[in-house]
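Throughout our pipeline, every protein is held as a single compact record rather than as scattered files. The remainder of this section carries one protein's record, kept here as part of the documentation.

===
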Amino acid sequence: MDLTGVAPALGLDATRAADPSRYTIGGRAPRLAVRPATGDELSEAVRAAARDGLAVVPWGGGTSVALDAAPERYDAALDLTALDHVIEYEPQDLTLTAECGITLASLRATLAARGQELPIEGAHAERATLGGALAANASGARRLRFGSPRDRLLGATFVLGDGTRARTGGKVVKNVAGFGLHRLLCGSRGSLAAIATASLKLAPAPAWRVALVYEASASELVDAERWSSLPRLEPAAMTVLGADAAGAAGSATARDYAVIVSLEDDRAWVAEQERRIGSRLGAPAARREGEEAARLIQRLADVGDPAGSRVSFTTPWNSPAALGVLKDGPLARHVVFHVLSGRLHVFPEPSAAAVAVMALSRSGFAPIDARGVGTLEPAVPGLAAVGDIRTRIREALDPGHTWAFGPRWQQGE
């Protein structure tokens, strides 16, 4: 494909052109695609797009945006993966500043060498970028312990819809106070700005990890007393998988559900936690430790974000028994419920999504994200008002509507 002339259309050298067919959303490819290599080039490309009235979608690894429905207008893809450098790393301060095209897997490798981690659990970490994880406000099984990406973000530089480059926040915790616009970008899914760099709070890597995999029948799952003592032991995470999801995560079970309890701490406390859990639940069907336990946490993120339709919910109920509403229904086999984090993912057929949302809403689950299921506002009162607020924010930050994805209620909480 002849790409000469594509990049100059967005103010960049022809070597920055990319094949538009690689950036398809909902079956629709853009007319143009560029891959800026510096922050200045990113600003120039957005400025040119705004001048020409083009609708732009920022791209990272494409793990999430490629699964969305196509926006009404989609003229240009802005590939940020060349912005992939660690700018500043201060291990003693547990802080890091990096360009947002770097992958989560690359960041993990850098930090692991110093016994540290960035606890952002985006799916498909080999491809998922830091900017994409922030824009999706992606979190996984350990959200209760470490918070969401919004909670890890100290500051950011970003490019607004007219090409202006801005920065809010700081690089260290003591410099961050008050409301920061950078946190508003978490969950915006590229509808407000393109995130160029991010400064983040890190965490020490745990001394030891163990993951216990229990099988549970439907009747065992809804027995609240069976699970009541587990939250008090403060495990790092507890996730319930339906039988199909368990197989996809490599925790195949012949029963109805798998319950995975993740323990992370010093070896003595992990051993004591494991002893107490065993006295309550018995021997697990499987046990993972060390790096195998860490890889299982990543698989839980992956299986919660497959291709196809998905609706996600939040709930205050931190017991597997909360899934009683699903135990006899068609969604039960591929459910992913991060219990302590209160995050439930279900994967309904589009035609059945509204019914599922209403049923779960009546049982204490509030919808926070959806894709591939059409509009759900009629099924859940109040969502239209949330959309109105997001629209007003967008009008303030992107009055020219350069960013193709407009705000919708599903884009983060």
About this structure: The two ends are 41 Å apart (CA to CA). The chain is about 25% helix and 20% strand. Residues 408-413 have pLDDT under 50 and may be disordered. Residues 206 and 320 are 25 Å apart (CA to CA).
